[in-house]
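Now for one protein, fold included:
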Amino acid sequence: MEEHPFKDKEALLETLLTLSKDKLTLFKSNSHTSSKDMLLLPLGSYQEVMDLILYLLKTCIMALQVEYVADKHIGNPELNTSEVLKFILQLVPYEEMEFLDEVQTMLKQVQ
């Protein structure tokens, strides 16, 4: 009979908990409500937060316009689109996917 590295369920749980601390980094527990977590974004200042909000708004405005005409409020469409795409890349949960791959491997070993 083949021996599995995670015969002991406590060892498996401990390994999963350790991995989750290192890999599940996109969300943080919300101290105000236990039913929802908070999304963590790597922003360094209030100016970056405002810029992000403005890029999202401007990109949505441009997307709704049939023919885009630059104006002083919307500005450079290439910059706005580039910033929104950078933001989207930050939301891709790479570490979480690595964690799920490792969990899947462990669960196959236990079965």
About this structure: Residues 93 and 103 are 15 Å apart (CA to CA). The mean pLDDT is 79.
